[in-house]
Amino acid sequence: MTAGAPRVGIVICTRNRRDTLMACLDSLARQDYPSGLTGIWIYDDAGSDGSSAAASARLASMLSAGLGGGGVIPGREPRGISAGRNEAAARALPVSDLLLFMDDDVRPDPGCLSALVGRMSENQGTGVAAPLLRRSDDGRPLHAPYFVGRFSFRYSSGDPRAESFCDWVDPACVLVSRDAFSALGGFWPGYYRSHEGVDLCLRAARAGFKVLYCPAATAVHVMRSEALTPDRLYYLYRNKFTVVRRNSGALHRALLLPLMAAAGLPKYLFDSVLRRRGLAGEELSAIFSAVLDGLAGREGPRAA
């Protein structure tokens, strides 16, 4: 694949998960794609566990072994995954034809990058491509090709074992062409966290790029036990409104957003009571704030 193969800039955002990040870098070192055509740029979102120093040392070793480029960008304050990805991508883009965005808990199989690059090259007009992600605990597919209802904006999924063009793919591991990333201006930072990948794919399609789900490329997503915190719920619910606001027409927004609030708020509250087996004041407050802020069009970090 070396002759004429594109240069790939790998972008990883991390925060206080040093061991997870090191394992991710180990998996990247095992890729069968030419190491001289790849670089790794890591954005540390104001972490405090020594990830930046550990990653810098690991990258120095990989550069000595033939890695084409890379570096670590330590953030001074938390900015969220979209802003972090964009900043690291700005470092990678001048020397990259393609950008592979990865969460730090993804472990690409050795042939993952080669397969993704190959399938994108063979499908002209593709701007975004993603592999099949398997759960680390039982090996089942974690994600699939996803579709968005034309009128309802409800999400649905296709067959995770079949290659297909779709509306969006999960951004935990996603290859984006230089042309697509530049045309879109990167990830929209207003999401802060959650739904930024949906938005990127929908905008890519409007700009004339195809979105490809490619199960010939495979990776493992490490399953961790994480609490569904009020903050996570806030972004999960609020950003549903942001996706619609940014990716639909004026009439659609005027009709759908109030309906989403009227139907979603009681459902989210009921789900919270069932999950908590009672009333959890901080979580209920986050849900109310998410819906109200979603209707108001607020973006970025949640207000203190």
Tell me about this structure.
By secondary structure, the protein is an alpha/beta fold. The protein has helices at 18-29, 51-64, 81-92, 112-122, 178-184, 196-206, 230-247, 250-276, 281-296, and strands spanning 8-14, 38-44, 69-74, 98-103, 106-108, 126-135, 146-148, 155-157, 164-165, 173-177, 210-221. It has two domains: 8-221, Spore Coat Polysaccharide Biosynthesis Protein SpsA, Chain A, CATH 3.90.550.10; 230-296. The strands form two sheets. Strands 1, 2, 3, 4, 5, 6, 9, 10 and 11 form a nine-stranded mixed sheet that branches. Helix 1 (18-29) runs parallel beside helix 2 and helix 7 packs antiparallel against helix 8 (250-276). Helix content is 42%, strand content 21%.
Q: What features would you highlight for this structure?
A:
single chain; 304 residues; alpha/beta; Spore Coat Polysaccharide Biosynthesis Protein SpsA, Chain A; nine-stranded mixed beta sheet; globular
Summarize it:
The chain is α/β, with parallel strands linked by helices.
Strand fraction: 15-25%
- Low-confidence residue ranges: none
Helix count? Answer: 9
Average pLDDT taken over every residue: 95
The chain-level structural class is: alpha/beta
Taken together, the total number of domains comes to 2
The coarse overall form would be globular
Question: N- to C-terminal separation?
Answer: 51 Å
- What's the total number of strands? 11
- Based on CA atoms alone, the radius of gyration comes out at 19 Å
Known CATH architecture of the largest domain? Alpha-Beta Complex
H/E element string? Answer: EHEHEHEEHEEEEEHHEHHH
Oligomer: single chain
**CATH fold topology of the largest domain:** Spore Coat Polysaccharide Biosynthesis Protein SpsA, Chain A
Query: Can you give the helix content as a percent range?
Result: 40-55%
The main β sheet shows up as: 9 strands, mixed
CATH class of the largest domain: Alpha Beta
